[in-house]
Amino acid sequence: MSDLITLTAAQMAAKLAAGEISSVELTQAHLDRIAAVDGEINAFLHVNADEALETAAEVDRLRAAGGAQADALHPLAGVPVAVKDLIVTRGQPTTSGSKMLEGWMSPYDATVVTKIRQAKLPILGKTNLDEFAMGSSTEHSAYGPTRNPWDTSRIPGGSGGGSAAAVAAFEAPLALGTDTGGSIRQPAAVTGTVGTKPTYGSVSRYGAIAMASSLDQIGPAARTVEDAALLHELIAGHDPKDSTSLPEPVPGFGTAAGNHEVAGMRIGVIKQLQGTGYQDAVLARFQESLELLRSAGAQIVEVDCPSFEYALGAYYLIMSSEASSNMARFDGVRYGQRVLPDQPPVTIERVMGATRAAGFGEEVKRRIILGTYALSAGYYDAYYGSAQKIRTLIQRDFEAAFASADVLISPTSPTVAFPLGEKLQDPMAMYLNDIATIPANLAGIPAISVPGGLAEGLPVGVQFLAPARGDAEVYHAGRALEKLLNDDAGTPVWAQVPDMEVAK
Amino acid sequence: MPEISRADVEHLSALAHIAMTDEELDKMTGELGVIVDSVKSVQEAAADEVPATSHPVELRNVFRRDEVGHVFTAEESLANAPDAQDGRFKVPAIMDGE
Amino acid sequence: MSQSTTDAAPLSFEAALETYEPVMGFEIHVELNTATKMFSSAPNAFGDDPNTNVNEVDLGMPGALPVLNGAAVESAIKLGLALNCQIASFCRFARKQYFYPDTPKNWQTSQYDEPIAFDGHLDVELDDGEVFRIEIERAHMEEDAGKLTHAGGTGRIQGSEYSLVDYNRAGVPLIEIVTKPITGAGARAPELARAYATAVRDIVKGLNISEARMERGNVRCDANVSLMPKGSATFGTRSETKNVNSLRAVEHAVHYEIRRHAGVLSAGGSVVQETRHWKEDSRTTSSGRPKSDADDYRYFPEPDLVPISVTADWVEQLRAQLPEPPAERRRRLREAWGFSEAEFRDVVAAGLIDQIEETVAHGAAPAAARKWWMGEISRLAKTRDADPAALDVQPATVVELNQLVEQGRINDKIARQVLEHHLAGEGAPSHIVTVRGLEVVSDDGALTAAVEKAMAENPDVVEKVQGGKLKAIGALIGPVMKETQGQADAAKVKEIVLEKLGMTP
Ligand SMILES: [Mg+2]
Ligand SMILES: [Zn+2]
């Protein structure tokens, strides 16, 4: 295993800028790593070697030539990145982890992909996910599950298990994820990496295949808080193609992630996000993190968010309703698979029915049916309408909490990574994984998951939340805890992952 | 709230255009029942006077200027079509005996 | 209900009206003439190659998102104001969900319980001047669907083997205007239907927010008809005749549906609530899709678009831009021009108000302007199978032509030729007259010679004139014209003949 790939993205960027390493060398090292370990991990659905090396060579050429063009290069130019396969890319297939889109080539790039191309980050490929991002374990991918680099018999979290596992296994220093109910943060937690769900509207959703439009956000996956902040800064900003994109200029998230001072910071512990359902070891690590923060001068307070009791229910109603609608376009008419019915007559109605029956997996169908039910005649007020009211109550809870705390804190996931297959037959048990991450999506606020230590050799995540548009604050708080834990353990969590190549 | 019956699920699968076998309908009826039970508390907690939040971050009046942007060629439009003819998407007969 | 009752023969219109009172309702879809689609920056254009006016948004591609066209919103507000509606201070779009291959996302982005304009009215004038108030329930924004062509079988939906889809029209901005139920029109219902559709077409044309060409589907009318027994206040079951695409057809469709409903009801049957297709050839309707419980559109607010809030300032700014309402303008012009009811109605029907107004503005007398546009120009248009308004004749050209005639430099017959040369691209009328040497022969020598020749060749005519039959001179004009290649002035010919015969003109 090349030493290059265990650097942080910031370190890679610095070495590239100093001319100590080339982007081709760095990109090739990651491609070699993918070749070595991805047969086991299955983080990638598509590896984009040729184009990645071309981009890398271009960056090297520009740097070597010097002058204005070299000076104008983005600080992360030449640092490779992986893209969750829910985000559309020209020149590479986009499947969403679904049979429905097998072989589909997007005729356009997502806005975040355009930004990445403009900044000249080599795109290593597309990462695995639960089909259409519907799941918490990456087991609902039509192309096989991704495995957790910490223990390949366990799930890497989901839906962005591919991006998190790729980053944890040194297959990529940076990756893009999407987070509708925790799909960036929960995988980060169970793979010992960092993941951020930005404020709703901070990053353009244009080109992210929608699950639930009012909840979805694209965000960064990385090994360190600083790396996540740098990638977030690169992909953020107003996009006229996304009506829900925030108009404000992007603050310097990287700078915020350089600040690890917590003296005087008021950190609110959410009463409702601990206790029943949370593993003892997860709670123990969480308490240790609180102690470290307190000893560094942070003021730990408890905050009450009574409406969180209804968050999971509201989430499942809003998410499934919007998902049932967003999934309607997959009908075998304009793109994607078309499946003919077994029996005549071959009418378009029956072709759509057969196409959607064959193209969608079980979890996608479950959510479409639930959402169709929730929106169908007579139930709108009771379900979708009520859930939107709960959303208001949750926002009010956060508002009250942020009156007495600068950031809030909770465990990211109630458990460590569980064994593959364990919850596959129990949808409700699977849904409970998202209990701590969902409120941020309902309220639209930013949240980060940072490593919170290990429990019996498996990573535990700690989540920080800040008010809407306060993304810089989650990087500040996240960086502070990251540094305290690294100093305490003498090494970062991510560096302790078992060596896959040796294991083989 | 009424219980979810198998007939309900059958109706929903028709609305959602997903063909389902008898087994799938049975399984889905059971699962949906459990899920719907678990989300029932939502309507009890949602009092009348609470306003609905449709967008987590409030924005208003986001408009586009009426200027032509990028357009596909017919080839680009049809590049992923399961079936096409004469520059158009081809689909089986629309309705059965409408 | 049994087949026999629904298939009952239509009653005569008179018989239907004896027993029943018709109730109408209209949904008119107006296609806006914006440069781009409602939610995408692809061109809003008609007649191009299939699937070339689309991008990922119009094709409902995964990941694509809508952004609202600000110009379409302003058009909607203007139309709302012209229909005397309230403009909502806050409104949103919703997804209307149903699967159909011409609908790329399998939902139509429309407005549901929050239309941008509501509670309006429109005063519609019938041919005899009677004014009828139509109450407008709402006008809302939505997007159009693509176009399906059914192939194989009969070419209609029924029995077709496959269909082809062109999404160029998908996403074209629409405003749907919905009336409240219209009662009390009685036998004038069909006429009122046409008058209402005409009024709406004229308004959107006047606002310049739509091409307003019904034959192209820029304005599409769905007509709802039901009957209730006279004296009853309970509405009957309605039928909805879809996409009636001419003003006449709107009138005929309502007329036919009243007769058909009456036939069904009188036979003891009950009307089926369904959509009907208009058949122009037989001037009848045929059964379409029955409305059923399956129409569960699962509306919910479109989360990919943000709400619209329209301030009072914005409304007033747009109100200030509104043109004079078409009905008021017509009243004003008719008085100013002094046309009779019939003359004015013909001008309106020919779609020539604008042309005549401009021609008058350029200095022509209203009667002269009318004479040119309704006469010669309309005749030429007819031979070209075109609308007179669509011919490339400018009001200034008409004024010039008219002056040439009034000055006696050309006669009416030559003027017709000049107009044809003008349309062939030969330039301004006076230029054509000069270059082609078309000026009326005023040189007495040449004309006198031609007259003398004609008189010598037609002694019988000369005899009649001498006998006091002055009208007989007309028979000499033909030969004189022939001799002078049409460049003679008829009045002058008459003058010379009388002079030669020693008679006083
Ligand atoms: Mg309608
Ligand atoms: Zn409509």
From TrEMBL, chain A:
SUPFAM superfamilies: Amidase signature (AS) enzymes. GO terms for molecular function: ATP binding; glutaminyl-tRNA synthase (glutamine-hydrolyzing) activity; transferase activity. GO terms for biological process: translation. InterPro entries: Amidase (IPR000120), Amidase_CS (IPR020556), Amidase_dom (IPR023631), AS_sf (IPR036928), GatA (IPR004412). Its EC number is 6.3.5.7. The active site is at 84 (charge relay system), 159 (charge relay system), 183 (acyl-ester intermediate). Heterotrimer of A, B and C subunits. Belongs to the amidase family. GatA subfamily. Allows the formation of correctly charged Gln-tRNA(Gln) through the transamidation of misacylated Glu-tRNA(Gln) in organisms which lack glutaminyl-tRNA synthetase. The reaction takes place in the presence of glutamine and ATP through an activated gamma-phospho-Glu-tRNA(Gln). PANTHER family: GLUTAMYL-TRNA(GLN) AMIDOTRANSFERASE SUBUNIT A, TRANSAMIDASE. This is Glutamyl-tRNA(Gln) amidotransferase subunit A. The lineage of its organism: Bacteria, Bacillati, Actinomycetota, Actinomycetes, Micrococcales. The gene is gatA.
Automatic annotation (TrEMBL), chain B:
Pfam families: GatC (PF02686). Signal peptide: none annotated. GO terms for biological process: regulation of translational fidelity; translation. The keyword Iron does not apply. The keyword Iron does not apply. It comes from the Bacteria. It catalyses: L-glutamyl-tRNA(Gln) + L-glutamine + ATP + H2O = L-glutaminyl-tRNA(Gln) + L-glutamate + ADP + phosphate + H(+); L-aspartyl-tRNA(Asn) + L-glutamine + ATP + H2O = L-asparaginyl-tRNA(Asn) + L-glutamate + ADP + phosphate + 2 H(+). Gene3D superfamilies: Glu-tRNAGln amidotransferase C subunit, N-terminal domain (1.10.20.60). It is an enzyme of class 6 (ligase). Keywords: ATP-binding, Ligase, Nucleotide-binding, Protein biosynthesis, Transferase. Its EC number is 6.3.5.-. GO terms for molecular function: ATP binding; glutaminyl-tRNA synthase (glutamine-hydrolyzing) activity; transferase activity. Allows the formation of correctly charged Asn-tRNA(Asn) or Gln-tRNA(Gln) through the transamidation of misacylated Asp-tRNA(Asn) or Glu-tRNA(Gln) in organisms which lack either or both of asparaginyl-tRNA or glutaminyl-tRNA synthetases. The reaction takes place in the presence of glutamine and ATP through an activated phospho-Asp-tRNA(Asn) or phospho-Glu-tRNA(Gln). Belongs to the GatC family. Heterotrimer of A, B and C subunits. This is Aspartyl/glutamyl-tRNA(Asn/Gln) amidotransferase subunit C.
Automatic annotation (TrEMBL), chain C:
It catalyses: L-glutamyl-tRNA(Gln) + L-glutamine + ATP + H2O = L-glutaminyl-tRNA(Gln) + L-glutamate + ADP + phosphate + H(+); L-aspartyl-tRNA(Asn) + L-glutamine + ATP + H2O = L-asparaginyl-tRNA(Asn) + L-glutamate + ADP + phosphate + 2 H(+). The keyword Protein biosynthesis applies. InterPro entries: Asn/Gln-tRNA_amidoTrfase_suB/E (IPR017959), Asn/Gln-tRNA_Trfase_suB/E_cat (IPR006075), Asn/Gln_amidotransferase (IPR018027), Asn/Gln_tRNA_amidoTrase-B-like (IPR003789), GatB (IPR004413), GatB_Yqey_C_2 (IPR023168), Gln-tRNA_amidoTrfase_suB_CS (IPR017958), Gln_synth/guanido_kin_cat_dom (IPR014746). Keywords: ATP-binding, Ligase, Nucleotide-binding, Protein biosynthesis, Transferase. It holds the Pfam family GatB_Yqey. Its EC number is 6.3.5.-. Residues 354-501 form the Asn/Gln amidotransferase domain. One of its GO terms (molecular function) is ATP binding. Residues 274-296 are annotated as: Disordered. GO terms for biological process: glutaminyl-tRNAGln biosynthesis via transamidation; translation. Residues 274-283 have a biased composition (Basic and acidic residues). Heterotrimer of A, B and C subunits. Belongs to the GatB/GatE family. GatB subfamily. Allows the formation of correctly charged Asn-tRNA(Asn) or Gln-tRNA(Gln) through the transamidation of misacylated Asp-tRNA(Asn) or Glu-tRNA(Gln) in organisms which lack either or both of asparaginyl-tRNA or glutaminyl-tRNA synthetases. The reaction takes place in the presence of glutamine and ATP through an activated phospho-Asp-tRNA(Asn) or phospho-Glu-tRNA(Gln). This is Aspartyl/glutamyl-tRNA(Asn/Gln) amidotransferase subunit B. It comes from Garicola koreensis.
